[in-house]
Amino acid sequence: MQSVKEIEFFQNIREIRECEFGVFYFFDGLVISEIKEGVVFNWAMAEKIIAIAYEIIGKDEPIAYISNRINNYSVVPSDWLKFYTHRHHLELYSVVSNTKSGFASLLLEKMFFRNNIQQFPNLESAIEWSMKKIESKKDMVQ
């Protein structure tokens, strides 16, 4: 699997933020994460990234999130409930993974995430889908 830095789309980067649990790439309307090996991604970590996304992209803009699962890590799926309790909204969420553990984690997340989670075998497909959806949402607002 490819890292964000290895693809042509990387030239559109607005900002990169590195945390102790992963690296986050911010584009116009798009956040791509690459969580570090062995991390158990939880609500406290998510809150930190949500605040950064609002700071960089803005609270009123449609945001797509891509989890580029180049490393093995796990997500606390029930923490999606905390996401909604705090009135956050994420319509466009996709996962790039081609491993059995990544697929198993995705199945658990789907039980708690209120909208559809799209799965892609490569990062370019996820970006293309996300950018089209962001543009159509922007068009609907105008």
UniProtKB/TrEMBL annotation:
- Could you tell me the superkingdom of the organism this chain comes from? Bacteria
Q: What is this protein called?
A: STAS/SEC14 domain-containing protein
